[in-house]
Amino acid sequence: MNLLIASQLSAIFWLVLAIALGILEVATFSLVSIWFALGAVVAIIPAALGAGLGVQCLVFVSVAVLTLIFTRPFLQKVMKVRRVKTNADSIIGMIGVVVEPIDNAASKGRVHINGLNWSARSEDGEQIDVGEQVLIKAIQGVKVIVERIG
Asked: Whole-angstrom Cα distance, residue 63 to residue 60?
């Protein structure tokens, strides 16, 4: 009788853990706890059959790790959040003119691009003087990352 009660309690534990992890996954939708929730669901089987705690834990960890390894990369690809391009992205690849010397160490520099002045930093850290032409390589926050032309 004690073995039956112990296996029922173990099965209930895994069920409660699976539900809690499922709720956590729904609340965060981060694809972290779902794998462990699946492991807990499968661990109910050896618990109900009276297997020892070691076997139950082994099943739990094995299922969680295997489902994580084999399904997470696919799901991340399918659920990938696509970056929405903005009008600011259109200046990447354009040529601008330095209107304030660019000095990364001093966190200074401005570039005139397409009718607008942008805060600028050089890609390789070099100082660039006023009047020089630069190629816009990227945008980081409100700054353009530039490279000296020529």
From this structure: 6
Residue ending a domain, among 78, 101, 121, is: 78
d(Cα 8, Cα 123) in Å, to the nearest integer? 63
Domain with 23 in it: 2-78
Task: Tell whether 31 and 69 lie within a shared domain.
Answer: yes
- Does the CA dihedral 87-118-98-92 come out positive or negative? negative
Determine how many CB atoms are found less than 10 A away from the CB of residue 76: 11
Q: Is 138 helix (H, G, I), strand (E, B) or coil?
A: strand
Residues 26 and 6 in one domain: yes
Ordered per-residue pLDDT tens for the chain, 150 residues? 576 777 788 999 999 999 999 999 888 877 778 889 999 999 999 999 989 999 999 999 999 999 888 887 777 777 765 655 666 778 999 999 999 999 999 999 999 998 889 999 999 999 999 999 999 999 988 899 999 997
Residue 136, domain CATH: 2.40.50.140
Structure tokens at 51: 């297997």
Cα–Cα distance between 102 and 24 in angstroms, integer? 48
CB of 108 closer than 8 Å to CB of 130: no
